[in-house]
């Protein structure tokens, strides 16, 4: 019997041979041999081995850690590690290296000898599941819900760092995370039951049947034929609410607009306070909710006059803005400070913070959109699109009405179509065109230049002079998340290359392939090294994978990739899902 460091004991069947001189040779399976004298305690031992990265030469710096003792060592240039002064016991050894999935060796027996742990190989990606599965990542990206058979089947939650799986339900459908703790799914013969799984305590609770569930701050809404119910978590307290549907949810999920069967507004429910704030005599189904503070703009008839009214759920007060010809479309800016509507003399914009109203004199709008700061307003009509500078009061004309992107300073706005790019200079309202089908187009820091790629050619574009500076030829240009670098395929060598947009220098990575997507500070790419592979590239480091890529899903802290065995290309049971954290 061996007493382990955590106080537990493990019984191991060993062979003991007497040497005739007062010593004995003890041989245990998987642990080698050690010689001890009569009455002598087993001495401390050591663990040695090698750790390498799949498909790559040995490297120093891979960590080997004895979990039960909080002891660790790093590999040398040959990939070897050595841990000494290990008291007798049965241990787990974990190997870790940035960009690779942790690997554990279990049941390493030490009883006074030197244990050879052999060679361990790290791979990019922890195996999460096999087969044709569906998956849903938690908001904090620490765990993933895995659904067998892709659409309906056994549901489990896997911790991404440790790889531990927790069974949730043997038969489930349509799972999604409410937050980092609660997972919602459906079950039952017709998947009619809505169930909430509490990851913290490992329990499931049925909260409704034949209803549609919608996530919100602090709980979820259930929409059914008999009304709306809010389920507050973690206590599962319920609040019955009027109406048949949830129509708007503020960006933080706190304020939720409810409507009746005719889609007229019934009020704003504050999920934090658990209160329903109702508008006064709303008319018609024309209303809109501020995406930040949850304010509801709606129409009310006072006497014989139609008024535009704003209900603030934080105070419960309603403010009459001004008379209007009748109910019509309403638009909010992204910050919730500006309200656009159709007044007696055409489109008007009400600044709630400044208390000012700007009339545009446009009577036949198709819609309205605001720049991020709200300074510039786009109003498309049958006759074209008008751009309004709310500071100077100037009006300009552009061709495209939708899909405009602003640079950070809002000096430039641009919209890409399938055949060209239209640009707007917001200092004077002038426009310019780039008549190319661009694969990439984005501003560099400082916004003096734009990077562009079209028809296999990359160039810098100066929007002031409209001059181009050629950067070279390449295929499949993919920028990094911060737009500081671009990966492409060199048309001459076929090698993956990285162009630094700051220094304008190009690095040949020496590997043939095609860029796939940005991934944090790195890139994903499909390569054909000495096999078909999927890789993560950053600062010259290459992390190869040894299987055929089927699907990939990129997130903030890592990415999923799914592979299959080339020898069984049609066998869905052979699919494998991996998770790779960024280094």
Number of strands: 58
Estimate percent helicity: under 10%
| Beta strand % | over 45%
Question: Reading side by side through the largest sheet, how are the strands ordered?
Answer: 14-15-16-17-18-19-20
Radius of gyration: 32 Å
The N- to C-terminal Cα distance equals 42 Å
Report on this model:
This protein has 583 residues and is mostly beta strands. Among the domains are: 2-123, Immunoglobulin-like, CATH 2.60.40.10; 129-374, no CATH class. Helix content is 0%, strand content 58%. The chain is built from no helices and 58 strands. The strands form 14 sheets. Strands 14-15-16-17-18-19-20 form a 7-stranded antiparallel beta sheet, with no helix packed on it. The chain has a 7-stranded antiparallel beta sheet with strand order 49-50-51-52-53-54-55, with no helix packed on it. It has a 4-stranded antiparallel beta sheet with strand order 8-7-10-11, with no helix packed on it. It is globular, with a radius of gyration of 32 Å. The model has no long low-confidence stretch (mean pLDDT 86).
Q: In a few lines, what is going on in this structure?
A:
Helix content is 0%, strand content 58%.
SSE inventory with pairings:
Blueprint (H helix, E strand, L loop, with lengths): L1 E2 L5 E2 L4 E4 L4 E6 L3 E6 L7 E9 L9 E4 L4 E4 L5 E7 L2 E8 L6 E8 L3 E9 L3 E5 L3 E4 L5 E5 L4 E8 L5 E13 L4 E6 L5 E6 L4 E7 L2 E5 L2 E6 L2 E6 L4 E5 L3 E5 L5 E5 L5 E6 L4 E3 L4 E8 L6 E7 L2 E8 L4 E8 L5 E3 L5 E6 L2 E6 L4 E4 L9 E2 L5 E6 L2 E6 L5 E4 L6 E2 L5 E5 L4 E5 L5 E4 L3 E6 L6 E5 L2 E6 L4 E7 L1 E5 L5 E5 L5 E6 L4 E15 L2 E6 L5 E6 L2 E3 L4 E7 L3 E7 L11 E6 L2
Parallel strand pairs: 6-12
Antiparallel strand pairs: 1-2, 3-4, 4-5, 6-9, 7-8, 7-10, 10-11, 13-58, 14-15, 15-16, 16-17, 17-18, 18-19, 19-20, 21-22, 22-23, 23-24, 25-26, 26-27, 27-28, 29-30, 30-31, 31-32, 33-34, 34-35, 35-36, 37-38, 38-39, 39-40, 41-42, 42-43, 43-44, 45-46, 46-47, 47-48, 49-50, 50-51, 51-52, 52-53, 53-54, ...
């Amino acid at each position: 019997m061996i007493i382990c460091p955590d106080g537990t004991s493990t019984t191991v069947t060993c062979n003991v041979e007497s040497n005739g001189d007062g010593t004995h040779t003890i041989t245990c399976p998987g642990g080698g041999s050690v010689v001890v004298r009569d009455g002598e305690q087993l001495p401390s031992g050591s663990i040695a081995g090698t750790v390498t990265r799949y498909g790559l030469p040995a490297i120093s710096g891979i960590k080997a850690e004895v979990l039960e003792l909080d002891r660790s060592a790093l590999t040398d240039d040959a990939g070897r590690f050595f841990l000494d002064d290990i008291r007798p016991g049965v241990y787990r050894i974990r190997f870790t290296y940035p960009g690779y999935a942790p690997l554990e060796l279990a049941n390493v027996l030490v009883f006074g000898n030197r244990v050879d742990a052999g060679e361990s190989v790290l791979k990019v990606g922890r195996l999460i599941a096999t087969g044709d599965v569906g998956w849903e990542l938690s908001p904090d990206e620490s765990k993933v819900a895995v659904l067998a058979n892709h659409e309906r089947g056994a549901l489990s939650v896997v911790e991404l760092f440790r790889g531990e799986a927790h069974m949730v339900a043997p038969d489930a459908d349509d799972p999604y995370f409410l937050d980092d703790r609660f997972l919602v799914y459906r079950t039952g013969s017709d998947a009619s039951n809505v169930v909430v799984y509490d990851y913290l305590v490992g329990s499931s609770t049925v909260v409704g049947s034949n209803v549609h569930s919608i996530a919100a701050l602090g709980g979820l809404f259930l929409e059914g034929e008999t009304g709306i119910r809010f389920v507050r978590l973690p206590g599962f307290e319920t609040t019955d609410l009027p109406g048949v549907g949830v129509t708007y949810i503020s960006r933080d999920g706190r304020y939720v607009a409810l409507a009746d069967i005719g889609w007229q507004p019934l009020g704003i429910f504050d999920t934090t306070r658990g209160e329903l704030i109702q508008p006064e005599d709303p008319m018609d189904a024309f209303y809109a909710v501020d995406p930040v503070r949850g304010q509801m703009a709606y129409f009310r008839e006072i006497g014989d006059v139609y008024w535009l009214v704003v209900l603030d759920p934080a105070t419960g007060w309603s403010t009459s803005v001004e008379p209007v010809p009748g109910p019509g479309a309403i638009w909010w800016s992204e910050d919730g400070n500006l309200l656009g509507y159709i007044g007696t003399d055409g489109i008007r914009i009400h600044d709630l913070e400044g208390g000012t109203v700007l009339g545009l004199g446009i009577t036949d709008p198709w819609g309205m959109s605001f720049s991020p700061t709200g300074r510039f307003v786009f109003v498309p009509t049958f006759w074209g699109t008008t751009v309004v500078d709310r500071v100077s009061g100037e009006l300009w004309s552009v061709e495209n009405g939708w899909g405009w992107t602003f640079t950070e300073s809002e000096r430039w706005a641009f919209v890409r179509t399938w055949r060209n790019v239209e640009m707007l200079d917001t200092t004077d309202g002038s426009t310019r065109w780039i008549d190319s089908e661009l694969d990439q187009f984005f501003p560099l820091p400082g916004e003096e230049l734009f990077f562009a790629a079209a028809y296999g050619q990359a160039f810098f574009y100066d929007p002031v002079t409209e001059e181009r500076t050629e950067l070279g030829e390449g295929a499949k240009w993919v920028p990094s998340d911060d737009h500081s670098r671009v990966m492409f395929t060199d048309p001459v060598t076929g090698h993956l290359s990285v162009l630094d947009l700051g220094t304008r220098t190009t690095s040949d990575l020496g590997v043939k392939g095609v860029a796939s997507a940005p991934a944090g500070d790195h890139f994903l790419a499909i390569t054909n090294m000495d096999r078909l592979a999927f890789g993560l590239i950053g600062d010259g480091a290459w992390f190869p994978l040894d299987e055929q890529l089927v699907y990939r899903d990129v997130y903030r802290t890592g990415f999923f990739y799914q592979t299959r065995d080339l020898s069984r290309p049609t066998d869905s049971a052979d699919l494998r899902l991996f998770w790779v954290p960024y280094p």
